[in-house]
Amino acid sequence: MTQGLHAVLVRPLLTEKMTALRESANQVGFLVRAGANRVQIKQAIESLLKVKVERVNVMTVKGKLKRLGRFAGKRSDWKKAIVTLKKGEKLELYESA
């Protein structure tokens, strides 16, 4: 089951917007596997990162259309999870960044 939990989380999102959310609302962001649901994401974060999760918001980000001259292409769609941690919880992963 641990391998399945590792496969759910792809990488943390380290952007200016996510940094502002982390400081103001105790929320962190992750890029997650496209087939993952809220329950799987919550279980993965609580077991792998040892923090208590209050809420998980999930959204699918559509890939942008890109052109190079007359050739058109599309970036891949990806899924983003914004996780609200319980009061008093901190994620050490972000404290060192």
Fold and architecture overview:
The protein has 97 residues and is of the alpha+beta class. The chain has one domain (2-64, 72-87): RRM (RNA recognition motif) domain (Alpha-Beta Plaits, 2-Layer Sandwich), CATH 3.30.70. Helix content is 34%, strand content 36%. It is built from four helices and six strands. The strands form two sheets. The protein has a four-stranded antiparallel beta sheet with strand order 1-2-6-3. A two-stranded antiparallel sheet has the order 4-5. A hairpin with a 2-residue loop joins β4 and β5. α1 crosses α3. The longest helix is centred in the middle third of the chain and has 12 residues, at 38-49. The radius of gyration is 15 Å and the shape is globular. The relative contact order is 0.24.
